[in-house]
What does this fold into?
Amino acid sequence: MADVTIWTLDWVPEGPRGFVRDLRLRWACEEAGLPYRVRTIAFDDRATNHLDRQPFGQVPYLDDGEVKLFESGAALLHLARKSEMLMPRDAVGEAQTLQWTIAALNSIEMVSVPWWFLNMTKAENKDLTGWLTQRLAHLECIFSEQQFLAADRFTVADLLMADVLRVGALRKFGDRPASEAYVARITARPAFKKAHADQLAQFKAADARRPSAQPSSSAP
Ligand SMILES: N[C@@H](CCC(=O)N[C@@H](CS)C(=O)NCC(=O)O)C(=O)O
It folds into this structure.
């Protein structure tokens, strides 16, 4: 009996067939020779029928005993822990694998998916506001119920999420008191304050070494 269960939708239109991200997890299990089974939830009610398992109403998500994960990247890294086929066991090989996994998601997919969305909806003149507003609404539900994202304690997940939300101009997308309180709480940590102050001091000191002050702005 397979321990790993991959959850996906019971049906999708023609367009996304072959691209639904459960494929990433099926593929990893196949590569690693890990037994798995696939179970489904209803496409028609997907926005609400599994929010307890995937807080953004999406797929895939995975069960492996007591481990329950959403985000295909997190699920892949979990599967990679089970098989050297997917991730080398030496420190350098493992670090490089982590690095390129995050790069695929956060440097390439971060740009390619919004590009795809804007391209697909060009005729409807859509922008990303609705999408971001919806994501922030899902997060607001989570922060209304919990102080931290994982394990009932501060983790690197809070560090990253708070920093992403801090840069993302939360306020421009409506009133989100729980999310704002979360960001304020996480960034009130002395370690954040020190890191922030040190960065400001470093760049301030560098001002003096530059031939002339050249204010510029660029994406983080
Ligand atoms: N970052 C998520 C993205 C998940 C995602 O975009 N899932 C799509 C299928 S590939 C989905 O559930 N779409 C249905 C919807 O958003 O309503 C992951 O990698 O797991």
The radius of gyration is 20 Å. The longest strand covers residues 4-9. The beta strands are 4-9, 36-41, 61-64, 67-70. The longest helix spans residues 91-120.
